[in-house]
Amino acid sequence: MSVQRIIEDYLGTTGYLETPTLGGKSKIKPDPEAAEKLRAQLEKERRLIVVVLTGFYLATFAVGVAAFFNLKDHSGWFHAGIGGSLITVTLAFQRFWQEKTMIDIILQQFPNLTPEELIKVLGNIREFFLKKKK
Amino acid sequence: MLESAIPSSQVVSPASCVMAFGIPTSREEFVQACDPSGGREFAARNFYGNWTRYDREFVSLFRSMLPSWRQIGLQVECGMTLQDFREVLHSGACQVLVVFTHCNSEDHLIEFFDGMAPMTAVLDAIPQDFTGLIDFCACHPPAESLLVRIVKERPNCLVKFTPADLEPGMWVRFCHVLFLLLAETPMTYLAALEKTIAQFLPLSQPPQQTHECSTHH
Questions:
Q1: What are the tens digits of pLDDT across the range B36-86?
Q2: CATH second-level architecture of B2-213?
Q3: pTM (2 decimals)?
Q4: Which ipTM score applies to this complex?
Q5: On chain B, which terminus has fewer CB atoms closer than 10 Å, C or N?
Q6: Any idea where the domains of chain B sit in the sequence?
Q7: Which stretches of B22-108 are assigned E, i.e. beta strand?
Q8: Which of B19, B45, B50 is the mutation pick for testing A, counting most A CBs within 10 A?
Q9: How far is B60 from chain A (nearest CA, A)?
Q10: Could you tell me which chain B residue has the CA closest to the CA of A115?
Q11: Which residues, including other chains, have CB under 8 Å from residue B16's CB and lie 6 or more apart?
């Protein structure tokens, strides 16, 4: 599950994602239980990303070393092609690294935030994801 | 002459209407509205100080409509205080005042730029002899007490409210269509409302529940 999805699930639980109306009460209800669930989900997601990324980078390194020794007699263009492909694949995984960084920031702030502040911070982070998608 | 004094029969143009906003319409106003010392509610409690979201859901729409409102002569009052509300009604220059703001129906308060005002203060701000129409784009059923009192104590004033949840983005679009219609063809405000509701009905249900409290002349 992506970090955006995890954050939106939490914000949805608190009522933050409902469109505010001009009359009546605020629909937002900070929920400490949901916040704890969110923390557990984020920690799980972070572990998964670390495992997947570490495995991937090791595999990429192994492929690079193998390619170096096995294909060193080929032309320079061929080497450039192989190297370029590996770099492209590595860049594609940048998103996961960005997500991990985001999780690190959220979890670092977690103990210092009230449930209200947590909603505010996560609401802003969600805007970051929405802006990036545009 | 008697006919034209009845608010529901007055043909209006956007130039004789005032659209006044008690909720923030710019970033500066939003920041002020979120200051806890101001005691204001809408931006702080519903958006938790998230300007980006507030801008996306309401202000950007408002800003895109503002030039065309100015072009058709509609008077737009941003950052309306209770005193502004009083002055607009006392000026005698407006036939229709649209109050676009937040209503706390539990504590019977209406949001103005300078804070939450009790319903009684709002009632007191309406001149005894006001013969126009006040359209509260804010109210919810519990606020009916104010409306009933306006009807009783300001017999020449017509007041309109909607006992449903109003989303600011949706409602600002509704007002936009309504005023463009009035600019195109001068007609009574109520007739314009009916036509606008007819346009919006396939899209959304809330305008269908619009109620009007009026006095009998």
A1: 888 898 998 888 889 999 999 999 999 999 999 999 999 999 999 999 999
A2: 3-Layer(aba) Sandwich (3.40)
A3: 0.80
A4: 0.75
A5: N
A6: 2-213
A7: 75-77, 96-100, 103-104
A8: B50
A9: 15
A10: B48
A11: B93, B94, B95, B96
